[in-house]
Design a protein that fits this description.
The complex is a heterodimer.
Chain A (H helix, E strand, L loop, with lengths): L1 H16 L8 E10 L4 H12 L6 E5 L3 E11 L4 E20 L2 E24 L3 E24 L2 E25 L3 E12 L5 E2 L7 E2 L2 E5 L6 E11 L5
Antiparallel strand pairs in A: 1-3, 1-12, 2-4, 3-4, 4-5, 5-6, 6-7, 7-8, 7-9, 8-12, 10-11
Chain B lengths: L1 H18 L19 E6 L8 E2 L3 E10 L3 E8 L2 E6 L3 E6 L8 E12 L5 H4 L4 E12 L2
The chains are: A mainly beta, B alpha+beta.
Chain lengths: ~240, ~140
């Protein structure tokens, strides 16, 4: 998968620097939206941590759909084809809590995904104002996760934070509908991302995060899910 | 110049992203339902002696029974000096004349800490205790 990504990156870079297409429209693109995240292992880990509470706590949130955003450079290479590079940011998390008059126990899990990748858009329908296109994208997904647990009982308090990191490839496909202006375009994009998460390692010690019930199984952060966002493109050297 | 403006917007966007970090401050507040309140009964061999006297030594024996609760800690002390500590419900310890600074009548304190049975987080983890303080007048002879 890594070789495929390297190949894809080289091909993309070749196209972007190809002198025969120099002078085509180049723009900046920004997308704000939300996404769903599978995170099966993290939900499992959250339940496991909750079961270790000495009292009956509750999962108050478990990796719900949350914020995603992207920004990058886009270049219109051919009449129907746009390519570019993107950075994407996604975040979600989970929380377990128990609170009574004598104290509280909390576990906060905060996950952040930084994706760097290249995309291709192919316009399937277009008129003067609207542009409907298919897109495909290949990324490297760098994920950070912090798991913080704290206990406060009467005047006593204690806490621990572990930070984990993983890296792996991810791919997306979807549809994009843009309303075109003279030097810009705005619209919506939606799609599905498949994440192939790598193993999670503790940042300080390098230890892998393993299933507490099955020490042979590595836990992963799986960002697979649907994405939907509002997209804008500003053409910097529009030829319209 | 126009292009620079867009680049600033892009940089601003990247900075804004990190401000959107996921957060959840919801709490799950519970009113613990207490079990039956603990009932404690403490007996010592000093109970039947009007004024215990320590000449050479004196053995103090105690027996603690707690219904609906758990004993955490027993401490016996004289003013300025700890004599005995234990987490067992039956036990004994010795008193000696020179446990006190000056001869005469002094007070032996017997402090007993036991679970509250409130089922709160502090109770379940052993940090919430009820307390019984018993006092016995002892005559120390040098």
């Amino acid at each position: 998968m890594r070789k495929l990504f390297v190949l894809f990156s080289i091909l993309g870079a070749q196209l972007l620097v190809n002198p025969t297409v120099y002078g085509q429209e180049t723009g900046l693109t920004v997308t704000f939206g939300g996404g769903t995240f599978r995170m099966d292992d993290m939900k499992y880990l959250q339940d496991y941590i909750l079961s270790s509470y000495p009292v009956e706590g509750k999962v108050t949130s478990s990796f719900p759909p949350y914020f995603t955003a992207s920004a990058g450079v886009v270049r219109k290479l051919y009449y129907h084809v746009r390519m570019g590079g993107l950075y994407s940011y996604s975040t979600t998390g989970g929380r377990s809590n128990y609170t009574d008059y004598s104290g509280k126990i909390s576990t906060d899990m905060i996950a952040v995904s930084h994706r760097f990748g290249a995309f291709v858009n192919y316009t399937i329908l277009e008129n003067d104002r609207l542009d409907l296109s298919l897109f495909g994208r290949l990324d490297v997904n760098l994920t950070d996760m912090s798991i913080s647990s704290s206990v406060n009982i009467l005047t006593l308090s204690s806490g621990i934070t572990n930070n984990y990191r993983s890296i792996g490839p991810a791919g997306s496909v979807g549809l994009e509908l843009l309303y075109k202006f003279k030097e810009a375009a705005i619209g919506i994009e939606g799609g599905y991302m498949v994440d192939m998460p790598g193993k999670m390692t503790e940042k300080d010690t390098g230890e892998e995060l393993l299933d507490p019930d099955d020490r042979q199984r590595e836990l992963t952060m799986d960002w697979t899910g649907w994405r939907l966002g509002i997209k804008g493109i500003v053409w910097l050297n529009s030829t319209r | 110049m126009k292009n620079k403006r867009y680049i600033y917007i892009l940089v601003g966007f990247l900075m804004l992203c990190n401000a959107c970090l996921y957060s959840d401050n919801e709490i799950f507040y519970v009113e613990p339902i207490p079990d039956l309140p603990p009932v404690i009964d403490v007996r010592t061999n000093l109970d039947t002696i009007a004024t215990p006297v320590v000449e050479d030594s004196l053995l103090v024996e105690y027996d603690i029974s707690i219904q609906n609760g758990k004993l955490y800690f027993v401490e016996a002390w004289l003013p300025g000096r700890s004599i005995y500590e234990s987490d067992t419900s039956h036990g004994s310890f010795w008193l000696y004349p020179h446990d006190v600074l000056t001869p005469g009548i002094d007070t032996l304190h017997l402090d007993i800490y036991y679970s509250s049975n409130t089922n709160s987080l502090a109770d379940v983890t052993g940090y919430e205790a009820l307390e019984v303080n018993l006092k016995y007048g002892i005559l120390f002879k040098w």
